[in-house]
Write a structure and sequence with these properties.
Structural class: mainly alpha
Order of helices and strands: HHHHHHH
Helix content: 40-55%
Number of strands: 0
Oligomer: single chain
């Protein structure tokens, strides 16, 4: 069993891999990974770093992105869409006046991992393939292990084998 410090470190490896898959990687995004918006800002009228914006302003930004033609208002290192942001706000009880900080984004991503079965996976209660499938339903840039492509039909950054390796070697 991993101690808490080791577990936190390995979960951070998984979170970084998810962020990388979602576009927060140097070959795609040159800025702070927590300030990433869908299309590298193409649809985003943000006047500053989103990691310094209030949650209410991020939600307004997401709506504006969709009005500007984006397929979603995905924002942040983990590309939270508006529906997910609203669900997480309710679950984690943060306010519209809280800052959409790196810490909040990490907390939200951890909640999504939990919701998708992280604890059960760590206890050996669900198989790695099932956990991978759960993750692919949450993050569109992760492959569905049954098909090798995104659950949502978009390009994936990692192969199924890459994800097996990440999950088996880090958790």
């Amino acid at each position: 069993m991993l101690n808490n410090g080791k577990r936190k470190m390995t979960i951070n490896v998984l979170l970084n891999a998810i962020g990388e898959a979602e576009g927060a990687r140097p070959d795609y995004w040159k800025g702070n990974p927590y300030d990433l918006t869908l299309g590298k800002g193409k649809y985003s009228p943000a006047s500053g770093p989103i990691s310094e914006m209030l949650v209410k302003n991020v939600k307004n930004l997401q709506k504006q992105m969709v009005k500007n033609g984006a397929p979603s208002g995905a924002v942040g290192k983990y590309q939270f869409i508006n529906k997910t942001l609203l669900e997480l706000q309710k679950a984690l009880k943060f306010k519209d006046t809280d800052v959409f900080s790196p810490e909040l984004q990490d907390k939200m991503a951890n909640k999504l991992l939990e919701r998708r079965g992280l604890k059960k996976f760590l206890k050996g209660e669900i198989h790695i393939k099932n956990f991978m499938k759960n993750l692919s339903k949450e993050w569109a840039s992760l492959p569905n292990p049954e098909t090798g492509v995104s659950y949502y039909g978009q390009r994936t950054h990692f192969s199924v084998n890459d994800m097996y390796k990440i999950l088996s070697e880090t958790l």
